[in-house]
Amino acid sequence: MEAARLGHVDVLTFLLTSGASANVINFEGRTALHLTVNRQLLAVDANVELGDANGQTPLMLAVKLGSVEMTKLLIENSPNSIHAIDKEGDNVLGIAIYKWQLEIFPLLLDCDIKTNLSNGAATTPLMLAATKGHVEIIKILLDNGAEVNETTWNGHTPLTFAAESRQVEAARALLDHGAHENSHGVNSAPLATAAQRGHVEMIKLLLMHNANINLQDSDGDSALHRSSVQSVSRKNASVKKRMKDGHSALHSAAEEGRVDVIRLLLQRGARMDTVNKAKWTPLMMAAKRGHRQTVNFLVRNGASLVWKNNDDQNAAGDAKLNNRTDVLGLLKSEEPEVTKFCASSNTKRQRTL
Predict the structure, then answer these.
(1) Could you give phi then psi for residue 51, rounded to 5 degrees?
(2) For 309-332, b where at least 16 C-beta lie within 10 A, e where not — what string?
């Protein structure tokens, strides 16, 4: 084994012809073939498909190292070894993608390897390529039969993985090959995923491909609810649409501390003191999170300071419970002025109506 690791071919040949076993394993579960691939070992029937302690075969290690010749030699001697899966659920195709082994990639595809074979995390090679942004590999996989809309157990598609990873060009390639822009599962609508992460370019791309801005996932969540991005808020979305818990887009924007989005939503008709099922207002959400600027904006625009939620707390009470002393001070100091402001603001609203 040491002779194999050090590349001493003459010593290795002598040991093998003297009866040494090619399949003896070390403490890592590796054989001499894991340490070096050569024709001397293969000639004495070394087990090509034997995995080490992690289930990794010599072929997997050869692919990981990027050795084209070693990969060819192992495939020639055991074509079935391309289908092996290690204890992490990885296969040689996934390893080639992860390690960006472009020279080895075609060798594996020529062996009719399954392009939709998932790993232990239920992700396919195409999903992994989308996550990594390997556009060239994405196109090769799709041309070789990979399913562009394959889903994981929770409904994630390759497009979802691209959206999660900010891989705009990968997403573009998938969409050009027929990816469903509105496919979704558990918290996994591509547009909502991109919106939650603030990926403006990804959002624009998905909207260009007619992604539904009001599409809700299994939690009743839509892109507008999860987004603090102006490009989403300006689209033809309903600002009054709610999640299952009664949460509105205004609640989400206040919770995130996004004054710019709050302003846009209010301009488009969102109600300042809209409440969810727990009777929480947007002001309470902002106060709980300690968003001073947001609280100040809401207060100055007529948000109620006296409204109480199901826990019998108003905005000041929520700030106090969450140790938001800065916000609490603001709410207390503004209270008298706000009462007058609300009155005048309501009068203006009545005149407008």
Answers:
(1) -90, 160
(2) beeebbbbbbbbeeebeebbebbe
Tens of pLDDT, residue by residue over 241-288, are 444 556 666 787 788 888 877 786 687 677 888 888 889 999 999 999
pLDDT tens-digit series, residues 304-314: 999 999 999 99
The DSSP code sequence of 25-86 is: --TTS--HHHH---HHHHHTT--TT---TT---HHHHHHHHT-HHHHHHHHHH-GGGGG---
Q: What is the spatial distance between Cα 286 and Cα 292, in angstroms, rounded to a whole number?
A: 8
Three-state secondary structure call for residue 314: coil
Please state which CATH number belongs to domain 250-353: 1.25.40.20
- Amino acid found at 196: Q
Task: Please tell me the CATH code under which domain 1-113 is placed.
Answer: 1.25.40.20
Would you tell me how many other CB atoms lie within 10 Å of the CB of residue 66?
15
What are the domain boundaries of the chain?
Answer: 1-113, 118-237, 250-353
pLDDT band at 198 (very low <50, low <70, confident <90, very high): low
d(CA 280, CA 297): 17
Q: Which CATH superfamily is domain 118-237 in?
A: Ankyrin repeat-containing domain (1.25.40.20)
Distance CA 257, CA 253 (A): 6
